[in-house]
Design goal:
signal; mainly alpha; Tetratricopeptide repeat protein; TPR-like_helical_dom_sf; 41 helices
Length: 849
């Protein structure tokens, strides 16, 4: 496009540029002439006496900044373009200053040039620089990063009169490499200045609440990463949680969660509990800190003993009787008792104390039922939403009780699982009730098992995740009684599969991928357990959800008609196409909903019920865990069954995108399992089917009027599938040309950091060392890039750096010994790492433990 635009400019009668160097005028492609002597072109752009017109100067600038090699001298000269009076040239220069491949080259000079645009100004000088240029320069400083850039951004965030630019500077500071020191200084200064106090002065020199809301979450990450913390470090979090501004309180809550997440991810036992205790001493609610201590100890640190102690303390602290006096917040007390009892039950289950766990779960149910008995669903909308949340928690509890039964039941006798099925049925009923109440409040609402299984307190998050307790907790636990031993990883993965079958069996079609159970018992009892339409209670809630959908769509149509009328009144004679399209879409949905309702009334077809519930992901989660445990064949069976279940039952128009997305992910998982097993041809066939399905869906959705942004999730999936095909072609088919072809197709769809490091690897593999190293300069090492950085540096001959990245990958990126061992086996045979195989350090790293 650049070559074409320059050619058009020259053909339109503009004078041609003077020779850039001896002989350059003879070059057939004018833009190539610019590229062949960028120094001369840059000098011409900067020469005020040159007679070139504005269009020529812009085209010259565009080509120079896009093609300029990172040479220090030219980068220094190019910084002068930032001050150019032509706003187009200035904008191009700002973008160039932040080009990732420049790395450290002339970093101070680039920052200094940009700072002349963003530093707070006053009087007539403030009108010289357009707001758009200042905003772009602020963003560029954030991408460049360093101490000086951070100081400039911090000054703008504090002193800039324009509120939008202050927020922009704070956002750039959060994203800037090396910005933590300034972020910490700014946030601390708010506490020192008493900004949060009621009625505190908010002069122009103090950051406002919007700026603080941007900074606090990153501050929370810093708290979680810091080795030592003072009381002064913790005060912004404590004070922020009590700030009068709602936006600050919400940001402080995010900061609190960020700090805990970082501590949990560190997998250093006790760090989170220590921080939480200190926050308690500083005034954070003890209920909150004990709850978080119990949850993190169990789900992230694998320490069931510590979790049990914290949960028991929470129960004791939150009881209705404290020091002989009745607590006034009886309702809140019941909720904290529930949380304490529930987490205690999970900890006891982890330790193998099943009877104790069941007793704790029973007490938790009593506390929650007491809160539910207040029937807040009959009150104002805000109270009804609280009731919905209570129903969700009640359903989560029943899933845990089903798991407890499975822990002590005979896995070889599926017919004896009646109690577990009853718990699962109750969980499904409570979730349907929650969906019905919520739908009656908000109209057309869809949900499914994922809303329950993905919640923070779900056993799927606490036990079955690929980190924390499920990954490494078992071997570290010591049973302290004779009531059974602690759960280990293998047992947990087995229980995950059994629980999935139980949940799937009480609502067929909602958890595709699991083989359904055939429980024993009287037919009417079995039917009530395994068929929601034959269960009076669940059928009643399904009917309420269906009715709420119809009324909700009708309400939405009324609102859409009003919007269309207002649009017509604002612009008389102009057809309001967006509003008309929105109204037509709603009318089509109403027609489909009414048709489904009529069919349900005159037939036994179950499609209408499937239209109300989104299929869950539990089978995919289980298959992924099986694959990581080296049980790829079992994983593929589940993935294949999931695809067949969704295909056979039919994909509803109400969850059309999600249904196809589930199938594609199942195909990707199956293909990846084939690759792991060395079956490259079969992997390629499955992965190509996934690509074809995605392309078909993209065409279908585009035909329905989907925008480019609407299709972004499928483009990302297609890119992932093509990357898997490239890896398979390189490692299993040993066809480097085919691998490159697949990868280049993927790269066109997605060019994020992960894709750039893979492109660097492909360029290194093909011998394009300069291009590979240029790409590497734009990569920030992290969990998603460590392994491919190791491969790229190995191909480039950087043995020490390659081994460093490989060691980091193996030590920090795997939740279990089994997972790390599979990565070791892969690395030992990876052709990209072939140059390392004779290194003693490599041989130690890939030795299976």
């Amino acid at each position: 496009m650049l070559l074409l635009s320059l050619s058009l400019a020259l053909a339109s009668g503009l004078s041609t540029p003077a020779p850039l160097s001896q002989g350059s005028v003879a070059t057939a492609d004018p833009s190539q002439a610019v590229r062949s002597d960028a120094a001369a072109a840059l000098a011409r752009i900067l020469d005020p006496s040159d007679a070139a017109g504005a269009l020529q100067r812009r085209e010259l600038t565009r080509i120079v900044v896009e093609s300029l090699d990172p040479e220090t001298s030219l980068v220094l000269e190019a910084t002068a373009l930032v001050a150019d009076p032509d706003p187009v040239i200035q904008g191009l220069a700002i973008g160039f200053m932040a080009r990732p491949d420049l790395g450290d080259l002339a970093r101070p000079e680039r920052v200094r040039a940009l700072s002349t645009l963003v530093s707070p100004r006053s009087g007539a000088d403030a009108r010289v620089i357009p707001e758009e240029a200042r905003s772009d320069a602020i963003a560029a400083l954030g991408r460049i990063g360093d101490r000086f850039a951070a100081e400039v951004l911090a000054a703008v965030a504090v002193k800039e009169p324009d509120a939008a630019l202050r927020v922009r500077a704070a956002t750039a500071l959060v994203e800037a490499p090396g910005g933590d020191t300034e972020i910490v200084r700014l946030v601390r200064s708010l506490v020192d200045g008493g900004l949060f106090a009621e009625g505190a002065s908010r002069g122009s020199a103090a950051p406002d609440a919007d700026v603080l809301a941007v900074l606090l979450p990153r501050y929370g990450q810093w708290l979680g990463d810091a080795n030592e913390l003072s009381t002064l470090d913790l005060m912004p979090l404590v004070v922020g949680l009590k700030a009068p501004e709602e936006i600050v309180r919400a940001a402080a809550g995010d900061a609190f969660q960020e700090a805990l997440d970082r501590l949990a991810a560190s997998e250093v036992r006790g760090r989170a509990a220590e921080l939480l205790q200190r926050l308690t001493d500083l005034g954070i609610s003890r209920d909150v800190t004990l709850y978080q201590s119990a949850r993190i100890a169990l789900s992230a640190e694998g320490d069931a003993g510590a979790a049990l102690r914290a949960a028991q303390a929470l129960t004791e602290a939150s009881g209705l009787q404290l020091g002989g006096e009745l607590r006034l917040d009886a309702y809140e007390s019941q909720l904290w008792v529930f949380r304490g009892r529930y987490l205690a039950g999970l900890a006891e289950l982890a330790l193998g104390h099943v009877e104790d766990a069941e007793r704790s779960f029973e007490l938790a149910a009593s506390a929650l039922d007491a809160a539910l008995s207040e029937r807040r669903d009959l009150l104002a909308e805000s109270e009804r939403l609280v009731h919905v949340d209570l129903l969700h928690q009640r359903a989560v509890l029943e899933i845990a009780r089903a798991l407890a039964f499975l822990v002590r039941s005979d896995a070889a006798d599926p017919a004896s699982l009646g109690p577990a099925l009853e718990r699962a049925r109750t969980a499904h009923e409570r979730h349907l009730e929650a969906q019905a109440v919520y739908a009656e409040i908000r109209g057309d609402v869809m949900t499914g098992w994922d809303a329950l299984l993905g919640s923070d307190m779900s056993v799927y998050q606490i036990f079955f995740g690929r980190r924390g307790f499920a990954s490494g907790g078992g071997p570290r636990l010591q049973a302290d009684g004779s009531k059974g031993g602690p759960l280990d990883r293998a047992r947990i993965v087995e229980l995950q599969g059994r629980l999935g079958r139980v949940l799937a069996s009480v609502s067929p079609g909602e958890l595709p991928g699991f083989a359904l159970l055939e429980p024993a018992g009287p037919p009417e009892v079995v039917e009530r357990l395994t068929d929601p339409l034959a269960d009076p209670a669940r059928r009643r809630y399904l009917d309420r959800i269906r009715a709420a959908r119809l009324s909700g769509i009708d309400d939405a149509i009324d609102a859409a008609r009003q919007l269309m009328t207002r649009a017509q009144e604002r612009a008389f004679g102009i057809i309001p196409e967006p509003e008309i399209q929105a109204l037509e879409n709603l009318q089509r949905r109403r027609f489909a909903a009414r048709q489904a309702a009529e069919e349900a009334n005159r037939s036994t077809d179950r499609q209408w019920m499937r239209d109300l519930r989104i299929p869950g992901s539990a089978a995919l989660w289980h298959a992924q865990d099986l694959k990581e445990e080296g049980r790829g064949t079992e994983a593929r069976v589940i993935a294949t069954r999931l695809e067949a279940d969704l295909t056979d039952d039919g994909i509803s128009d109400w969850w059309f995108v999600i249904g196809h997305e589930r199938i594609v992910r199942a195909q990707l998982l199956a293909g990846s399992a084939f690759t792991d097993e060395g079956r490259g041809e079969e992997a390629e066939r499955v992965l190509l089917r996934a690509v074809e399905r995605i392309e078909d869906i993209e065409r279908d959705l585009a035909g329905r009027g989907a925008t480019f942004d609407d299709l972004s999730s499928f483009r990302a999936l297609r890119s992932t599938a093509l990357v898997s095909l490239a890896v398979n072609a390189n490692v299993r088919l040993l066809d480097k040309d085919k691998a490159l072809g697949y990868y280049e197709r993927a790269y066109e769809l997605r060019k994020d950091e992960f894709m750039r490091v893979l492109m660097a690897c492909y360029r290194a593999r093909s011998g394009a060392e300069a291009e590979a190293r240029s790409l590497l300069r734009s990569i920030r090492p992290g969990p998603g890039t460590w392994y491919n950085l190791a491969c790229t540096h190995a191909l480039l001959g950087d043995t020490s750096r390659a081994l460093d990245y490989l060691e980091t990958e193996l030590m920090q990126n795997h939740a279990s010994v089994e997972s790390a061992n599979r990565q070791r086996e892969w690395a030992a045979n990876d052709p990209d790492l072939a140059s390392l195989r004779n290194e003693a350090r490599f041989q130690r790293l890939v030795r299976v433990l």
